[in-house]
Structure formats: C-alpha cells, structure tokens
C-alpha cells in the first residue's frame, strides 16, 4: 500500500473543510471566485477518491489512524476506506463536481455560499470514511449545519422556515444517535467500529444487562437515523426542505445528504452491530422492515397527490429510502448489495431529476405538474432527459432503478419475506402513477397559454450580475415560432446545465448494466460481514 | 419489582433525572409556539444528553482523570476521561447549531414579523 493512499482518507476530509475558507478570503478582493475554487476542489477530490478506490481494489481496506494513536487499536479515531465507503465517496465527489455545472449559471451565487458548499462536501466525505461512532455524530452534525445554511440561502422567506424545521428535527435525530452511542459505550467501553464489531457478538452470547443496553442503543440509533433518512412518519422536514431550497442546492441535498445518512445506518447496522445481533434480537428485523415498507407506501402515495414537481420528487425520495431501509432489515447478502446499488442509483437519478426541475423552471417557467404541459414540444432535450430519468426511477430495465429493486426483491425472496416482495411490486406501480402523470403532461397534453404564476428569471443575490441573455429575452420579447408558448427564458439555461442533465440521464441507463460489477466490487465487504 | 425500581432510583437517580430533563426539553420543543423557546427546548434536550454522558463516566470514589507522573497507573481510581472529551466536542457542536438556529429565527422575524408558530402558520396560509 502506497504512502499516499494511506494519507488520502485524511486529506479527503481535511482538504475541503480547509479550502472552504478560501472563497471567503479571496472574496475580499475578487467578486466571483467561489465557483472556481469549488470546481477545482471537487474535481481534485474526485480524482483523489478514484485513486483511493484503485488502492482499495488492489490491497483491500485502507486505514488512516488520526494523530498516530495506532496502538492499542481503538484509541485513535480511524478513517476507513473499504469497498463500501469508497463507493459512497465516489458518488459524493462526482455529484458535487457535476452539480457545479448547473450552479455556474443557475446559482446560487456568492462566495460564502461556496464556502458552505465545500464544508458540506467535507462533512459528507467524513461521514462516509469515518470508522468511529462518535466521530460519525460530529460529521452528521457538520453535514446538518451546512445543509441548513444551504437551504436557507434561498431567496424566499419560506426557505428560512423550512431550514429551521429541518434544523430542529435534524438535531433531534442526531441527538438520538448520540444517546445510542452513549449506551453503546456503556455496554462495551469502545467507540471504534472495528473494535465494537468484535466485542458485540460476545455480548450477545453472554446476555444480561449489557445486552439490554445494546438493544436500547440500537433503538435510539435507528430512530435517529430514521429521522435523518426521512422515514415515515419522521419525514415531514424533507418535502419542505427540498421544495424551498434553491434549485441549484436541491440536487446536491437530495442526492447526497440523506443518501450518506442511509449509508451510515447501513454501516452501523452491519459493521458495528452485525447480522448476528440483528437476527438474534426479537422483533428487530421485523420493525426495520415494517418502517421501510410503510415509508415506501406512504411516500409514493403522498407523491401521487402533489402538485409541485419538486415536492413530488421529495416524497418519492421518502419511498425510495424506505426500500433501502427495508432491504437493510432483510439481512441477506443480496438484499444488502441491492440496498447499496439503490442508494447510488437513487442518488444519481434524483440529482438528475432535481437538475431537470431547475432547468425547466428556469427555461420554461414551470414548477407544478400542470405547467409541464407541452414541454416535449418546446424543450425536447430537457423533456427527454426527464422522461428517461422518470422511467429509470420506476425501475424499467435497463436502468439504475431496476437493478437496485431487483436485488432487493431477490433478497426478499431469499429471506422468504413475501410481503416485502409485494411492497416492492406495489411501489413500482405507485412510482409509475406519479411518473406517468408527468410523462403524460410533458408528451401528450397541449400547452395552455396561461401566464405562469412563477415569474422566470432569478434574483441576483449577493451582487451577482444577471446574465445579459436574460435581460434581452425579457425586454426584447423574442417570440418563439408556431404554437410554442413564451414562458420562462430559454437563454437562462446554459449549455452546461443541459449537458450535465443529459450526462446523468445516460449514466442512469448505463448503471443498469452494472449490477454484476457492483456485486463483485462489494463481495470482499459482504463476505466479511455475512460469514462471521 | 417495586423494591428493585426503588433501588435503581436510589443508586442511579442521575440517569432518571437526565431523562426527565430530556423529556422536558422535548416537550418544550413540540408544545411551545415561540420559536426561540423551541430552540431553548432543543438546547435543554442536548444538555440532558451531555449530563447523561458525564454520569456514565462517574466512578465511585474516582478522582479527576489526571495521572500523576510517579504513581503506578493500575491502582488509581478515576473517572473515565473519554466521555468528558465527547461532551466537550458535543457542546461545541451544540453551540454552532444554536447559532445557526438563531440566525434563521432572526431572518424569519425580519420576513414575517412574528416569532410565534401559530401566527406564522396564519401568515403563510394567507399568502
């Protein structure tokens, strides 16, 4: 293992957090440096993560012990890059770099915003790489803080209310997790995940009061993560947060924040508590599976009745994460791989769908399902990409949505939990219900010449100059030909926005062929977890 | 059963108190209409957790965890330092959260002119 690969886990966390100060410092002299700093940093982070992934592929786990507290094991905080965490880190860095292509023109602007953005990325990478349960709490809160600030960077007053709601609920979630960590520490005296994973099976065998403490710890940790991952009935913050965040921020939050929390839940469930504890505790898997399944049904049903497109996608996230949590509760290797694939697939698809929502709101002035009427005729590329992503979300092969659901369904059959398989089937039907509403509006409903209730164009925040193109489009009134409706301003949409949207749509389809590759890549990790 | 409960209350009353405090914080967070008081409730909730951690670290007859240079470490009875460090970190996190929360409340007050949640709901419903 090369020296550099061993350093990388620490650098991946420290670099974005330190570089978050650069946009503010440079902002004293130059006006718009934030985007460039963020673009360079995220691209470099992606390259570094790719290098780390290659090192993990060659040599297995890469562990960095902070502060050289290596001996005895478990004293120092460890940053661990293994097959599971590197996969999530790749998703984080790639999405972070990709969404910047939208933010370049679509905003939000301002150097302080990009400082927050880099903090968020640093927190997310820390959350995915940490090997210590208390360190995980700190990164949960760093991610939370950065997210609240990013949501509140929206123009409207609603965004502050949504952010405060998320702040209160998110803090309760993280605090619940902290109580769970306290009980874990009482029961075992350890905080290091590796050490905990070795101690806990012995405690399970021994029983007694320590086992009771462990069960209480799991209950608190699970409720805390259910809040962070937005499981029904603790999901109420998510629709508000996703809807009222600026269009450029929602893709990042929707694709990464809950995804990495769900990853952390999987890490704690399988690496710390272990399959043995999960199956040995009465009613544990049943409760986890039920929470997941109810979220799937409630989330998709609520999505069907939404009028606002971003809100609809937000409820859809509740149901997709429900699938992941249900898959965690199945405790089979196939279902676990399915959960990881679905986490990544859902992240990619939701990033794409929210970018699409932003592009369409900017260029077509449409924010509700009804306003999407006639989109295919007027904005064929955006409509086609949205269509592909929606079809992928339903889970029609070949797509990222299909392979995740497929593996989870196979896992449910393996575990002989037929209700779960039925819920997956039902969720596909319900996803079809809300996706078909949008597809029908875009492709088969003629556009209605109503004045858009959402005036297009952006408020130039923080002294950013509005693009020249926007001004001319609004003042000059460039009428489009035929029965095209003049809404929004197509000039507000940059080439970069459309390019990243199309790239994500293509990626969502290509991921549909990668099921076997994911399974093989995760095999060393799952073998170790499931064969103990 | 009852004797056992009384015994636990007599020896572990700190834990019981902490969870009562936690409940008060949570009740305040849910039931109070004033946004600032809601945030105070969040703070109380977190403080209860910090106290819980400190109580976990307590060792009967233990001293402050400062190891003198000359004594043999095995014979010393002292409180576990790790939970204290955890609480220090968690306090810092809690302060950051309070700051962000108060900033958001200031902004909500500037936009809507109210700190009460019920009034806020009415104002937003009218828009």
UniProtKB/TrEMBL annotation, chain A:
Membrane topology summary: Multi-pass membrane protein
Coiled-coil regions listed: none
GO biological process, one term: ATP synthesis coupled electron transport
InterPro entries, per database record: CPA3_Na-H_Antiporter_D, NADH_UbQ_OxRdtase, ND/Mrp_TM
Stretches the record annotates as Disordered: 449-483
Subcellular location field: Cell membrane
GO molecular function, one term: NADH dehydrogenase (ubiquinone) activity
Spans through the membrane: 6-28, 35-57, 84-105, 112-130, 136-154, 166-191, 211-230, 251-270, 282-305, 325-345, 351-369, 381-397, 417-436, 495-519
Top-level lineage group: Archaea
Span of domain NADH:quinone oxidoreductase/Mrp antiporter transmembrane: 131-431
UniProt entry keywords in alphabetical sequence: Cell membrane, Membrane, Transmembrane, Transmembrane helix
UniProt GO cellular component terms: plasma membrane
Protein name as catalogued: Monovalent cation/H+ antiporter subunit D family protein
Organism for this UniProt entry: Natronorubrum halalkaliphilum
From TrEMBL, chain B:
Keyword Transcription regulation: no
Parts forming coiled coils: none
Keywords for the protein's UniProt record, in alphabetical order: Membrane, Transmembrane, Transmembrane helix
Membrane topology: Multi-pass membrane protein
Keyword Nucleus: no
GO cellular component term of the entry, any: membrane
TM region(s), chain numbering: 12-30, 42-61, 81-106
Location in or out of the cell: Membrane
Gene3D superfamilies, per database record: 1.10.287.3510
PANTHER family cross-referenced by the UniProt entry: ANTIPORTER SUBUNIT MNHC2-RELATED, MULTISUBUNIT SODIUM_HYDROGEN ANTIPORTER, MNHC SUBUNIT
NCBIfam families (alphabetical): PRK07375.1-6, PRK07375.2-3
Record's protein name: Cation:proton antiporter
Organism expressing this protein natively: Natronorubrum halalkaliphilum
Lineage start: Archaea, Methanobacteriati, Methanobacteriota, Stenosarchaea group, Halobacteria
